Amino acid sequence: MDPKAFFKLSYGVYIVSSSTDGKDGGCVINTMTQVTSSPARISIALNKNNFTLKLIETSGTFSGVVLAEAVEMDMIKRFGFQSGREASKYEDIPMGRDSLYNPYPTENVCSRFTCRVISSLDVGTHVLIIGEVVEAQVMDGTAQPLTYANYHLKKNGTTPPNAPSYQETTEKTVGYRCSVCGYILESDTLPDDFICPVCGKDASYFSKL
Question: Which residue ranges does the record assign to the Rubredoxin-like domain (predicted)?
């Protein structure tokens, strides 16, 4: 089986969020999909280790936003490469709350959705959640959605290990890998002052391949 075949599947880039007992959380995913139109239902898949999944399972609700191409990598880093167990994802950024009290970012967002969980399915490393849409709003009608392909092509984005599309590479590469986000610096040497361009960690977080 050629794992590169999966790279041809088309994805968007989204942030899903929830709130429980005064704790807000959210994460970046590429697995938000409309599954029916009447009633309107959306599916998402989250890693079992993901703190946002725990919030959704407790609250029974979640928000989902479609990120625009103009979104900064700092936003991807904030929601995609740190855990909500330690970090306050929504601190000091523009945000809103939907009718079910779920938080959601408001900048560089094409549209947003509010969902109630109606079912879930254990699919191994991840949990597939089906949500019934109770709110849907276009946030910016002129913005182009960020595709997963352009996230990699235009923003040099990497895939976190918790993502459903993450794959271990079997190819021999000379360089150093970031232990936080998986970014690979293809080089024979690692400068002492090197900073990861994706998650911002210093050289001490890199290991030789």
Answer: 173-209
CATH number at residue 121: 2.30.110.10
**Same domain membership, residue 111 and residue 14:** yes
Tokens for 73?
A: 């990598």
What is the residue-averaged pLDDT of the chain?
A: 85
pTM: 0.75
DSSP 88-151: -TTTTS-EEE-TT--EEE-SSEEEEEEEEEEEEEE-SSEEEEEEEEEEEEES-TTPPBPBHHHH
Please answer whether residues 139 and 173 qualify as being in contact, where contact means their C-beta atoms are separated by less than 8 angstroms: no
Range of the domain at 25: 9-153
- Which of 42, 29, 15, 38 lies closest to 102 in space, CA to CA? 15
Instruction: Compute the distance between CA of residue 171 and CA of residue 194 in angstroms, rounded to an integer.
Output: 24
pLDDT-flagged residues of the chain (< 70): 3-4, 6-7, 152-173, 181-182, 197-200
Whether 173 is in a domain gets the answer yes
Task: Pick the closest to residue 29 from 58, 1, 3, 56 (CA basis).
Answer: 56
Convert the pLDDT of each residue in 160-201 to its tens digit.
444 454 444 445 567 887 777 667 777 888 888 887 766 667
